Structure formats: structure tokens, C-alpha cells
Amino acid sequence: MLLTQAKLLLDNDFITKDVLIEDGIITKIADSIEQEGHDVIDLNGKLLTPGLVDVHVHFREPGFEHKETIKTGSLAAARGGFTTVCPMPNTNPIIDSVETLDKVNEIIERDAVIRVLPYVSITEGLSGEKLVDFDGLKAHGAFAFTDDGVGVQTAKVMYEAMKKAAAINMPIVAHTEDNSLAGTGAVHEGDVSERLGVEGIPSLAESTQIARDVLLAEAAGCHYHVCHVSTKESVRVIRDAKRAGIKVTAEVTPHHLVLDESDFTELDPNFKMNPPLRGSDDREALIEGLLDGTIDFIATDHAPHHKDEKAAGVAKAPFGIVGIEHAFQLLYTKLVKTGVFTLQQLVDFMTVKPSNVFNLDSGEIKEGKAADLTVIDLEDNVTITEDGFVSKASNSPFIGEELESDIFMTICDGKIVYEK
After folding, report:
1. Residues 123, 96: contact at Cβ < 8 Å?
2. Rg (CA), the chain
3. CB atoms within 10 A of CB 199
């Protein structure tokens, strides 16, 4: 396969190149490559980036296939331009044993159209009590360890987990939430909870657990990664920890970058996610943290739910929104076109930076590398509609939004896995 007239980004400038792909590998990048003997795709100046990387998704299989499956989730990811994704282990059964991980890897091998690297849990059954078999799970292909969906409530358990992870050079990835502070809240504790009359989740529920964990990580010598940061206090704690030389990294979601509690104008469960949408000052701190390197990259936290489940109302509906199909387009429209990010920064936040944090062999366009590539038409646009998702779910607060740019093609391992 030969991609001609591809527009590549180099230090915020565009360069035009031809890219030759053979046997799934990028074998040549040049100003012009002889076309004879190759299947030629003329990109006509469309943007070619490394395949997008999302280290935080929920594909729900096994156990919740009515919400999403590895097959539908990977197809949705491909539609969003992603070539590598990492699904969380809060399935049924929980991915907390070698046997379950092996079964999930078999499903991935059979059904996934892109690279799918599964997490495993920190504790058995996400109980926050008994640790899993760290050595065995690493040997069977675990991406990292996380009890995503719940915070590990006991410092001792987290500290022991970090020591085990450090001993085998694996990261601990944390959903940070102190249950004694979060209670049964459904939205941010602040203007929105008062306005809607719904119990709130205070910012302290997140930031205090991060403060605990960074000190534990320092003592354990562990790589500690914070999921979906949402508060200004959390940004401050992570910034201070990095300055102290602690090996902490962090991610932020698209929805926390472009929405805040003021957007939650009615009792719409599609605005319910965990962590919740916070204040405008929190959103500004997240953007600042991403730009100054306190927060390392963007991850979607794609969390599909059946429409009947979301129809239960804000108090009872499950947390989470879909996000993997329109993440780039949303951020390009809301933050690049408005001058908050450069295009280069956005691409880096979604490719090379997550790859570097987790030592993935992805995130760059280079001869000899796997041909995991995304073609983006910056002149196109897309309107998000309820019936337009590739995912099984449509629980999005962005339905009706018209976004600038769209994914034109996604190539994984040299194969076209999505084409508009």
C-alpha cells in the first residue's frame, strides 16, 4: 500500500510525503515514491498522524455484552482513529485471574480489529482487599494493574500493591475516590448539586486519595498513574509530586476539558460521569495542567451503557459516557480551532505522549515501525447523532453537536480497519 500526498506534522509545520507500507510495516517515507506495483491511495493533502492511542476504555466484555463488546468497541475505536486501546477490567467476571485474562485475550485475537491491550485488577473482585497474582498476570499479557471504577480504600493494600508492581516494573493505574467522602453522590458537589437537588461528590474525594497515593508510590518506587483527573486540587498535588521527583503520571478526558458543571442544565443522565463535571475553575486548571506537563495526555474513558439503563434518571443511572468515536473531532473543534491547543499538541496528547508513558511501540510515523496510522480530513465535519454511533451505545452529552474535521481512514498493522 502506498499513501501519496500525505500531510505530516513536524514541529507545528506541515510537510508532504509519500508513505510506503509493506507487510504491515512502514518501509519508506519520501517526497515521492514510484507508484508502479503498489496499491495507491491518494490522500490529497489530508493529515496523516500516528494511530491514536487510548489507554482508558470500557469494552464491557465479558459479562455486559448488551452495552458493548470487544468487537463493537474496537470498531468504534477504529472509527475514531484509534489503533491501540486499553480496556478496563471491571467486567463480569472481573479480569483478576490468569484464566479470565486468557479468555479475554482469546476474544481479542478473534474479534478485535485494532490493538487491544487489557488491564487486570489490583485486587480480587475489585474488593480492595486481596491482591491478585501480579507475576502470573504479567506473564499472561496484562497491560497494567487497576481497580478502575472504585478507589482502593486502604492505604496498606495500595502500598503492598505498589511494591509488588514496582518489583516487576509494572504501573499501578488508579481511579482515585475516597468512598467516605464521595458517599452516594451522583454529580459534583457545588452549584449543580444544589440546583438539581441531587447528592454531590466533593472534589476532596479525588484529591485526598491522590495525595495519599503519591507518597505511597514514592516509598514503593512505583510508577503511579492517575486516571481521569478532574479537580484543580488534584492538579496541584500531581504537580507538586512531579517536582518532588515522584514517578507519577496522569490523564484527563475530553469531556472534562470542554465541559463543566454549568453545562449540566437539566436532569440529563448523559451528563453523569465519574468523576463528575466540576467547576469552570477546575476545567481551566485541567487545561493548564495539560499544557504545562502536569497532566501527561488525554484518554477518553469511553463508557458505553444501554439506553434503558441511562433512562433511570440522574440519581440511579450508571456513570459514564461514550467518547471514542469523536474525541479528536471534539477537541480539534473546541480547543484547537479556538487557539487553546495547537494541532501538534493535540496529536501529541493522543499519540506519542501516552505511548511514551506506558512504553508502547507506537505513537510515531517512522520507517521500520508498524503501520498504525490515522488519516484525518481537517476540511470535513461530522454531526453527532444518536443513531450514528458504531458503538452499541449512544450515551453522549454531545448529541447534536456539529464538529469540524473527521476521521477519513484508520490503518492498523498495515490494514485499513475504517474508511469513511
Report:
1. yes
2. 21
3. 14
List of residues 6+ apart from 214 with CB closer than 8 A: 224, 237, 238, 241, 246, 248
- What are the cell numbers at 9? 506534522
CA distances from 12 to 270, 331, 375 (A): 35, 17, 17
> What is the Cα–Cα distance from 260 to 359, expressed in whole angstroms?
32
Residue 73: its H or E element: helix 70-79
User: Which residues fall within 8 angstroms of residue 49, CB to CB, at 6 or more apart?
Assistant: 8, 9, 81, 347, 351, 365, 373, 374, 376
Measure the CA–CA gap between 64 and 393, rounded to whole angstroms: 12
pLDDT tens digit sequence for 48-99: 999 999 999 999 999 999 999 999 999 999 999 999 999 999 999 999 999 9
- Which of 301, 372, 377, 406 is catalytic? The answer is 301
Closest among 226, 275, 273 to 247, alpha carbons compared = 226
Q: Do the strands 145-146 and 172-174 form a parallel or antiparallel pair, or are they unpaired?
A: parallel
The CA dihedral of 20, 13, 255, 208, to the nearest 10 degrees, is 110
Q: Output phi, psi for 334, to 5 deg.
A: -85, -30
On whether the pTM is more than 0.90, the answer is yes
Contacts of 375 (CB under 8 A, 6+ apart): 3, 6, 43, 46, 47, 48, 407, 408, 409, 410, 411
Measured at the alpha carbon of residue 271, what is the angle toward residues 267 and 276, in degrees to the nearest 5? 110
Span of 153-162, 307-316, 321-330, 398-407 with lowest mean pLDDT = 307-316
Compute the distance between CA of residue 286 and CA of residue 278 in angstroms, rounded to an integer: 11
* Nearest one of 80, 148, 151, 89 to 118, comparing CA atoms: 89
Q: Angle of helix 204-220 relative to helix 232-243, nearest 10 degrees? A: 20
Instruction: Decide if 31 is catalytic.
Output: no
